[in-house]
């Protein structure tokens, strides 16, 4: 069995393996190690200011000469409702009190931060940019394409994949419901839900409906997942949780331990941490929010309201008050260097293909 | 690439393809056609009385000499709460009035019906019995095993798969969240949810934790899905929606049309039709039930309360008041004979393996 993969050529990599741009958990070491091992490392720049992104890129470029990507969050229309924020601040007061934290000042300059990040990416000569939460404006796409930057979108449904292709994306990540962390969805389906389509269903249906290369994501942790994804028609895979537990990841020991001790049934989809739906291990913070009787403020407002609490809790070793993003395959996690992980995957892939 | 499949030997079939026992939608023609084409047909006997099952088996045996299976629903503890049923009957009154229906008499002799079905299966020499909604009592398992009947359980999590193996099942169906129709779950996870693990995540984690053969289910519709499932470690697949739209299926034209015109994002998990969670195409009956302010009666009570409404609505061409079970891959549906479907799948599988 043999797979063609135009996408490795387009991305300038040897292996069809992309490390997901996990905002808050990627490190320059992780990104560089993945790229140096033949895959595509990705800086998770979703929460970065332009300055932070600039220095992060510089750092990665010191560690590798090979291509790596930057992942950005596409700004969306958010509603700032003062009473809504006030209500949430009141709800969060006991957490802040327990952790000795002040109420944060909300900054909704998402659009400006995004545009500045685009400029940084261009200045620093980044070859691949991936997007989450939607499709950037046509002017941004044209600006990046004029610099021969390869653009990768994210889709959680066939409709979103077609929208990515129409907008001029060079490839599209099809994110199955198994995936950990934020859902990349930017449409809602009937019944006000964002799409939650399993990878086994999503990949072939997306592949049949777009002509750009499809990158499979969601539940993929090893050689079995990679070969299965390519059998379904994907040309590469993107893996998040698999790299999150690697030695080079920025995830805390607390966080890695939580994944190591979790089962496939332990995650839920929740918007209580950031205002956008994401998959993570169920805990007390999520449970308590069941009793919250108002709308959760939109992203990025809720993200900023809870950010200090989550950071301080994690530092104090409290896994119940922080986000623990994880996909549905925690039992397949490996706790090794990202380079060993990739080696293991390559060996397993070869052994499956030679059977 | 080559796959070993002990399970085809155990089941006495040529192809690692099992037609799911879709209660209410299998016909003797469908079951026999699948078995005559080299797969394993399954009578969906979940709702059958012993008499109905007896005659259905006789009919299939006239159409094929090859092995086929019977799928049974394992009885569960249900709570008959009179006020609860009264409340639901009041809610359903407008539907019954519009369709000229009487209030049904509730029959909760599930256990007795199940035990009678077990006897029928033994008398008629059925070689394979599969179970949904749990594991039968040890006495039932021993009775069937004494007759060399092969037993196949259903699991939606690793824990449920291990329970099936421990109870003596010969193989286990791992049902991913993509699957249409009833969830086979018999445990609940934290937060009171039944497991909804995507097939890409579920299969390898189950395979790593049991030593009986694993049969993959959920989102599998074609050769790509079969090879992908076997790469993940499954030894066979079970397909429901793929056979539901076949010419031999008992699904109405209304129902098949609904699947043909649906998208991967159109299904939801709901317990409003039967009292047990199942995946189907979203419609008015499900939506309206959002405003119902009491618990839905347990299965099989709710199933009996809504059954007449669903049948009558379907007969009148009203797809909004009936269940439309479907998996998450409706775009991959084929509207051909089950034998042509299997032929297509075999050709596609060969072409993938020879690449």
From TrEMBL, chains A, B:
Its cofactor is FMN. One of its GO terms (molecular function) is nitronate monooxygenase activity. Pfam families: NMO. Keywords: Detoxification, Dioxygenase, Flavoprotein, FMN, Monooxygenase, Nucleotide-binding, Oxidoreductase. InterPro entries: Aldolase_TIM, NMO. It comes from the Bacteria. It catalyses: 3 propionate 3-nitronate + 3 O2 + H2O = 3 3-oxopropanoate + 2 nitrate + nitrite + H2O2 + 3 H(+). Transmembrane segments: none annotated. The keyword Lipid biosynthesis does not apply. One of its GO terms (biological process) is response to toxic substance. Nitronate monooxygenase that uses molecular oxygen to catalyze the oxidative denitrification of alkyl nitronates. Acts on propionate 3-nitronate (P3N), the presumed physiological substrate. Probably functions in the detoxification of P3N, a metabolic poison produced by plants and fungi as a defense mechanism. Belongs to the nitronate monooxygenase family. NMO class I subfamily. This is Probable nitronate monooxygenase. It comes from Staphylococcus nepalensis.
């Amino acid at each position: 069995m043999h797979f063609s993969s135009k996408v490795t050529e387009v991305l300038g990599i040897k292996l069809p393996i992309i490390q997901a741009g996990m905002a808050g958990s990627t490190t320059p070491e992780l990104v560089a190690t993945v790229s140096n091992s033949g895959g595509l490392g990705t800086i998770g720049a979703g929460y970065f200011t332009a300055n932070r992104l600039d220095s992060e890129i510089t750092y990665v470029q010191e560690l590798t000469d090979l291509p790596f990507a930057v992942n950005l969050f596409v700004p969306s229309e958010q509603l700032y409702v003062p009473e809504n924020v006030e209500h949430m601040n009141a709800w969060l007061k006991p957490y802040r009190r327990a952790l000795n934290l002040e109420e944060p000042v909300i900054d909704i300059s998402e659009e400006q931060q995004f545009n500045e990040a685009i400029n940084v990416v261009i200045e620093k000569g980044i070859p691949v940019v991936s997007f989450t939460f939607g499709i950037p404006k046509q002017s941004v796409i044209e600006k990046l394409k004029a610099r021969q930057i390869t653009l990768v979108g994210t889709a959680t449904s066939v409709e979103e994949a077609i929208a990515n292709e129409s907008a001029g994306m060079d490839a599209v990540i099809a994110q199955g419901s198994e995936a950990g962390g934020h859902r990349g969805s930017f449409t809602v389906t009937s019944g006000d839900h964002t799409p939650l389509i399993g990878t086994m269903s999503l990949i072939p249906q997306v592949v049949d409906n777009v002509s750009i290369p499809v990158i499979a994501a969601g539940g993929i942790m090893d050689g079995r997942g990679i070969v299965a994804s390519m059998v379904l028609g994907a040309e590469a895979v993107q893996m998040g949780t698999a790299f999150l537990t690697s030695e080079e990841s920025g995830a805390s020991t607390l966080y890695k331990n939580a994944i190591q001790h979790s089962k496939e049934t332990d995650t839920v989809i929740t918007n209580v941490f950031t205002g956008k739906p994401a998959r993570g291990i169920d805990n007390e913070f999520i449970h308590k929010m069941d009793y919250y009787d108002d709308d959760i403020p939109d992203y990025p407002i809720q993200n900023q309201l809870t950010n200090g609490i989550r950071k301080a809790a994690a530092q104090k070793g409290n896994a119940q008050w922080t986000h623990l993003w994880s996909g549905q395959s925690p039992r397949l996690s490996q706790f090794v260097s990202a380079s060993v992980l990739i080696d293991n995957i390559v060996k397993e892939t070869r052994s499956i293909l030679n059977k």
